[in-house]
Amino acid sequence: MSAWGNLPIVAAVDGSETAAAAALWAAGEATRRHTPLLVFTAYGYEDAAFGGKVFPPSEWLKIKEAAADDMLRKTRGTLEAAVPGLAITTETTDRAPVPGLLEVSERARMLVTGEPVGVIAGLFSGSPDVDLAARAHCPVVVVRGDEAPSPDGPVVVGVDGSPLSEAAIAWAFEEASLRNAPLIALHAWHDGDTDGLFTEGNVHFQGEAVEDADRRLVAQRLAGWQERYPDVKVDRLVEHDKPRHRLLAASRTAQLVVVGSRGRGGFTGLVLGSTSQALLHHAGCPVMVVRSENV
After folding, report:
1. Contact in structure between 157 and 184 (CB atoms under 8 Å)
2. Is 227 among the domain residues?
3. 148 within a domain of the structure (yes/no)
4. Any domain includes 13
């Protein structure tokens, strides 16, 4: 992804254990990519919290700013001890978390957060106005899982057979190559999910079984990327099952799951509605959400 230049990976922290774990994951990612790490926190509140007209008192903001600075100082010290030599900077903003994170995503290579709980959970509520994953200007990674991902596990990418999944595939290949890990390209469909069926398959491969058409299109979507990343071993899986079942099962032994987003408040193709919520709240490993613009 040379277009991203030397933009930093941003770790969003809020003093929680989940955010601390996400920051450590982000530090490892920055080291792997030879890119700097920015540890970021937003300590403001939405206007609604103060009636929409009354701004927080200046003394209150000073106290919050001091606490944020102290948290960032301690977090930076922990990360520098864990990952010596990594270029780490810190930044605070008095903006609320949602606009603060969206703003910093404009100058980030990747935005990493902890498991969506509390305020962070609101960012993934599915609302078009506050859905961080759908509105961020860079890929968003939610670091999940009770234990560190297996270093020998695969990278898993959800493939829906449409051009919109191209960005997710691109990032998944790069992640697999950087990690020297195999890549599992998974497409799942079930009889009640007509959106999960490949329209192109029905047009170009009439007479074929849906599963055969899907396999052919998955292979087509991956072909160019396999040529670009010949070092990545790829397993293509087309399953007759609900997407959430297959992705959640795959996440138990994966290093990372990558899925695409339309950038309109919802996930596309393979990851629709409740499936996105299932991944963000129940996956066994970090989940990367990539918009079609993130290439």
Report:
1. yes
2. yes
3. no
4. yes
- Extract the tokens encoding 273: 């509605």
Q: Dump pLDDT digits (tens) for 53-67.
A: 556 677 878 888 999
DSSP string, 136-189: -SS-EEE---SSPPPTTPPEEEE--SSGGGHHHHHHHHHHHHHHT--EEEEEEE
| Domain match, 43 and 15 both | yes
- What distances in angstroms separate CA 121 from CA 92, 113, 286, one per listed residue? 20, 11, 15
Single out the residue of 75, 65, 60 nearest to residue 13, CA to CA: 75
Query: CB within 8 A of 16, min separation 6: which ones?
Result: 114, 117, 118
Instruction: Report residues of the chain scoring pLDDT below 70.
Output: 1-5, 46-56, 116-131, 145-149, 161-164, 189-211, 262-277, 293-295
174 lies in which domain range?
A: 155-291
- Shared domain for 222 and 244, answered yes or no, is yes
Tokens of 291: 């918009």
| 129 & 204 share domain | no
Domain assignment of residue 222, yes or no: yes
Q: Which residues contact 79 (CB under 8 A, 6 or more apart)?
A: 23, 24, 27, 37, 39, 86, 88
The DSSP string of 252-267 is: TS-SEEEEEE-SSSSB
Q: How does pLDDT run across 68-107, given as a tens digit for each residue?
A: 999 999 999 999 999 999 999 999 998 888 889 999 999 9
Q: Tell me the whole-structure pTM to 2 decimals.
A: 0.84
Q: Are residues 69 and 193 in the same domain?
A: no
Q: Are residues 128 and 54 in the same domain?
A: yes
* Per-position DSSP letters for 262-292, written without gaps between them: -SSSSB-TTS-THHHHHHHHH-SS-EEEEET
